[in-house]
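Response regulator transcription factor
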Amino acid sequence: MPRVLLIEDDRAVREGVALALRRQGHDVAAAETGEEGLERLRSFRPDVVVLDLMLPGMPGLDVCRAMRALDQTLPILMATARGDDVDIVVGLEAGADDYVVKPVQARVLEARIRAVLRRVTAAASTEGGIPKIDTYGELAVDRAGHSVTWRGVPVPLAPSELRLLLTLSAAPGQVFSRQQLLEAVWEHSYHGDARLVDACVGRLRAKMGEPSREPRYIQTVRGFGYRFVSP
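Tokens:
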């Protein structure tokens, strides 16, 4: 039973969303503030977090950053009261894997939760049961073990970051449009959500030590999307 930590200050929204998630079979812990949410994170050990962006006291963005400092791989879904591009991009850059716009529709939230959990648990392809580890210069991608190392040092990646790297590196040199990556990684079909791709590429490059102007591995194809280049 997937465990969901819901952090939402509006009591009516919190209770309504929690009820809807429980009806879908989730074990739900609810918190009213960011501080309470961080405490519940340690004791409840959720599989995914649904985090309201606008919180009293500790802002949602700070909560997201604090959670990422504690656990780089924990899936975080951000809930925002506005579909404002700036709010969404800032939240994604803070480490959120995905987002939903309030008022939250139960079916949309459930679909996003299922999708992000699939990114965590989906088994990568192997040949004959033998783990497949691909090496690209100083970067090693373990497709079976879902782990990445840079110069022998493990690189902790959030679910969306790992899935994006696996998708791009599986076909070096191939150019992927933002829409293709959106559908492959996030399982979305909305063109407006291309900002998910751009924010995730930025986080992934930073973790891999990629220079922003001349990235070595993940290159931007202007006006189209991205491609992975093997040194």
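The radius of gyration is 18 Å.
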